[in-house]
Design goal:
eight-stranded parallel β-sheet, binds 1-O-alpha-D-glucopyranosyl-D-fructose, 17 helices, alpha/beta
Amino acid sequence: MADFSSKVVYQIYPKSFMDSNGDGLGDLKGIIQKLDYLKNLGVDYLWLTPVFVSPQNDNGYDVADYRSIDPRFGTMADMEELIREADQRGMGLMLDMVFNHTSTEHEWFQKALAGEEKYQNYYIFREGTPDKLPTNWQSKFGGPAWEYVPSLGKWYLHLFDVTQADLNWDNPEVRDELKKVILYWKEKGVKGFRFDVVNLISKPERFEDDYEGDGRRFYTDGPHVHEYLKELTRDTGIDDMITVGEMSSTTLENCIRYSAPEEKELSMCFSFHHLKVDYKDGDKWKLMEPDRMALKKLFEKWQTGMQEGHGWNALFWCNHDQPRTVSRFGDEKKYWKESAEMLAASIHLMRGTPYIFQGEELGMTNAHYTSISQYRDVESLNYYKILLDQGKTEKEALEILAARSRDNGRTPIQWTEGRNAGFTEGTPWLEVTANYRKINAEKQIGDSDSIYAFYKKLVALRKEKDVISRGSIDFLEKENPDVLAYKREYEENELIVLNNLTSGEVKIQADPAWAGYHKLLGNYEGVQNDGCITLRPFETVVLEK
Ligand code: TEU
C-alpha cells in the first residue's frame, strides 16, 4: 500500500461547485474552469461526489448507472477532459463509489422488480406480507428500512432512502459486477476512490429485530466486511491507489483493520465520532453546544489508537453531509477568520491525510435558511416532517434544520461578490448563502492574510515537513477542555500545536524548552509567552523546535 501522508485531498460537490452553462447546477466543465484555483491551493487529489446517471433523489448517491455521466453534469468527454486537465496540473481524480446500494432505477433493480430471480439475488429481498416488516430496523433517513413490493410479495432492504436499495454483497456476482466498475474507471485514468458507507456492505446472516437501537449494530462493520474489502482491492489491483472508506458508526478496532497497510483493504478511513459531540443523547436532531472535552478525547483516542495500530485517518471537519465547521465549532460572527483558521490548523497538523471540503478554505458558513422551501436535501425534508409529527413547532423544526441540515454544506461556492456569487448565470438549484459579498474567493485569493492563504500555507507545510506528514503524535493539556494541544515528533524535529477552542483567552503553562522554539505558524501576531502562554480567542500557535 502506498503512503499518502504528504497528500491533501479536496472534495468537490459538483452540483454546487461551478455552473458553466447557466442551468443553475454545477457541472464538470465548471470544475475544469476552476482547476487553476485548485492547483494554486496546492492540493493533490480531487474527490468528486457522484456524477453518475441518477434520479438524484439523494443527489447522486442513488446511482442508476455506474458507467455513465449524468447529463446534468456533462458528458463522458467532459469527464475524460477533466481527468486529463487535472492530471496535467499534477492532481489526480478520485471518484465516489456508492456500492452499498443502487438506485431503484438501476437496471439490476428493475430486472429484480420484473421478477428475474438472478437480480433479486443482487439485493436483499425477504418474502412476507404487507402487514409485517421483516425487522424493525430504521432507515438512516427516517422511517422503516424495508419497503414492500406487492407484485412480488416481498420486502427489500434500504438503509437509506426508499429509492436506494441495499446490494447483496454475499452474492459473488454482485462483487464481480462492482469490481468491473472499478476497473472501468481505473482504465479511464482515475487515480483513487472514495467508498460510500462501505462498512455497511456486509449484512448479518440472520435478520432480527433490534430492541436496543435502529438495527445498526447488526450490519455495521458486518461479518464479512474485511474479507470483501480485501477481495475488492486485490482483484482490482487498487492497493497502490488512494482509497478512502466512509465508515458509519464504526469502531477504532475495525478502522485499524480497514486502513493498516498490511491488511491491504483501504488507504484510510473517515470516521464520524468527533462530529457527534454536539448531538444531545447522540441524536442529530437534538441540539446541544459542542462538548469540547468529548471532542478532545475522541481526537486523542483516534489519533493515538490509529498510530498504535498502524491505521491511517482521513482528517476532516466538513463534507457534503455536515454543517460548516466555522458555524459549528467556531464563531462565524465575531471571530470568523480566527476560528476558521484555528479549526484548519487543528486538524491539518495531525497524523493523517487532510481533506478540504469545497468552500471550507474560504471560511464559508452555514446557509441560515428560514423557510422549509429553501431546503432540497431528502434527509432534511424527511426529518422536518418527523420533527413536526413529534410535536415541534415549525419554528423549532426550522431552527434544528438551520443547525443540522446537510444543505448547510451544499450551498453554491462563493466565487465573487457578483450575482449568485459568480456560481451561475441562471437560478441556483440551492440558494446562495447571503454573506457572499463578504465571503468569496475573489476577495481572498490575492490576500496573503486570508483564510484561503492560511489553508494554502497548511497544504505547503505538509509537503515541506516530514514532522507533519510522518511524525508521531502525543497529546498535551489533556485535561483542559479549552485547548486542543499536541506534539509531533520526527527524528530530531518537533512541533508543538496549541489551539484555543474558545472565544475567551486561555492561559496554559509553557514547557520551559519552548522558549527556544520559533513560531512556525499562527493566526495572530507574535506569541504571548511569559512562562505561561496566553492564547487569544480561537488562537492557534505552532512552535517548531
Ligand atoms: O453518507 C452516509 C451517512 O451515514 C450520512 O449521510 C448520514 O446519513 C447523515 O449524516 C445522517 O445524518 C453517505 C453519503 O455521504 C451521503 O451523502 C449519502 O446520502 C449516504 O451515504 C447514502 O448514500
